[in-house]
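Milestone 3.1: sequence recovery, worked example.
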């Protein structure tokens, strides 16, 4: 309880609105039930199933959310919040090979975890504007992380080329690509990570090549190697090494929206 002051006069204490607190608990229970059902394999839960899992009446569920689109929006926001809490940025000063390796392993962890949510979204997204917006949000999020981690590879790159490469990188590291690798090609997680790393490496190399082709752009060349007589051979064009894949890291539990 808090005392309220108006015009310098202390008013009677105002109690916290118990109804608002109960309403918020109900909303959260419904969101948690929606998430739990999808994680358990119920990819298209009905309102009645969600209400039963949450321990509330169907009338109460629709009284708080109105329709499925509102529930999808609230669930997506909650999953995004959990992703933000669990996200660990990768140091952009690491060598390129280490950045690519860390980024692709991180993406693999997240994509493996979100699989049930992504599959649920695939069923309903054609008929849901909210789920379609969620997809765009997460592609944009992937592009943002790419810019933050690999921004040095885009220095001097034409804006049109940069946007194209960023879009390709975003698609290559999000669910549409991952589901093709895992469900269509039936690759193991380590094999799918290897394909992702090769895709990222090739696209970043393309960005670097585009930067070198820009007039007036100076690109640092690797030092020339010396021979036995002390003379130096011409330096070869810089290349981006393709990292090897070791055993897949054990995924930690993270929540991401779809």
């Amino acid at each position: 309880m808090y005392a309220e002051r108006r015009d310098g006069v202390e008013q009677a204490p105002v109690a916290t609105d118990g109804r608002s607190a109960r309403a918020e608990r109900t909303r959260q229970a419904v969101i948690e039930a929606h998430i739990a059902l999808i994680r358990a394999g119920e990819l298209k839960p009905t309102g009645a199933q969600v209400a039963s899992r949450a321990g509330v009446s169907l009338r109460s569920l629709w009284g708080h959310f109105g329709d499925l689109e509102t529930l999808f929006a609230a669930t997506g926001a909650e999953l995004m919040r959990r992703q933000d809490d669990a996200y660990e940025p990768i140091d952009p000063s690491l060598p390129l090979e280490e950045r690519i390796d860390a980024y692709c392993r991180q993406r693999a962890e997240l994509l493996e975890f979100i699989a049930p949510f992504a599959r649920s979204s695939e069923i309903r997204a054609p008929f849901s504007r909210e789920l379609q917006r969620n997809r765009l949000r997460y592609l944009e999020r992937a592009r943002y992380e790419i810019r933050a981690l690999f921004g040095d590879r885009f220095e001097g790159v034409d804006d049109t080329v940069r946007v194209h490469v960023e879009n390709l990188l975003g698609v290559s590291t999000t669910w549409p690509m991952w589901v093709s690798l895992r469900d269509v090609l039936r690759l193991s997680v380590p094999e799918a990570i290897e394909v992702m790393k090769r895709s990222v490496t090739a696209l970043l190399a393309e960005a670097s090549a585009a930067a070198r082709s820009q007039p007036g752009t100076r690109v640092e060349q690797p030092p020339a190697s010396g021979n036995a007589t002390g003379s130096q051979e011409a330096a070869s064009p810089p290349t981006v090494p393709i990292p090897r894949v070791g055993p897949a890291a054990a995924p930690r539990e993270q929540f991401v929206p779809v």
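Confidence is low (pLDDT under 50) at residues 1-6, 219-258. Residues 89-215 form one domain.
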